[in-house]
């Protein structure tokens, strides 16, 4: 499987969390403590975009119902 560029590390570092699409999948990219992480960009409870939530340390907060998910 080949790598697919979806954004720059600088952009993810600047924002903290960034929503992108790759091969038809919505993905949230995070920058935490000098490292990049990725999860699905959909809250499992409210179907909201996690990339529109608030990143607090290692947790992303759902923008609809404020549930916290450890990245």
Mean pLDDT: 93
Count of individual beta strands: 6
Terminal-residue CA separation: 24 Å
| Structure annotation, total helices | 1
Looking at the structure, what is the overall shape?
globular
Spatial sequence of strands, sheet with the most strands? 1-2-3
Note down, in words, how this protein is organized.
The chain is globular. The strands form 2 sheets. Strands 1-2-3 form a 3-stranded antiparallel sheet. Strands 4-5-6 form a 3-stranded antiparallel sheet, with no helix packed on it. The chain has 71 residues and is mainly beta. 10% of the residues lie in helices and 41% in strands.
Please describe the structure with a list of short key phrases separated by commas or semicolons.
mainly beta; three-stranded antiparallel beta sheet; 6 strands; globular
């Amino acid at each position: 499987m080949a790598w697919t560029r979806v954004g720059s590390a600088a952009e993810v570092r600047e924002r903290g969390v960034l929503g992108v699409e790759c091969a038809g999948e919505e993905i949230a990219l995070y920058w935490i403590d000098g490292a990049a992480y990725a999860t699905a960009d959909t809250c499992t409870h409210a179907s909201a975009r996690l990339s529109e939530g608030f990143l607090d340390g290692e947790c992303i907060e759902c923008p609809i119902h404020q549930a916290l998910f450890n990245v």
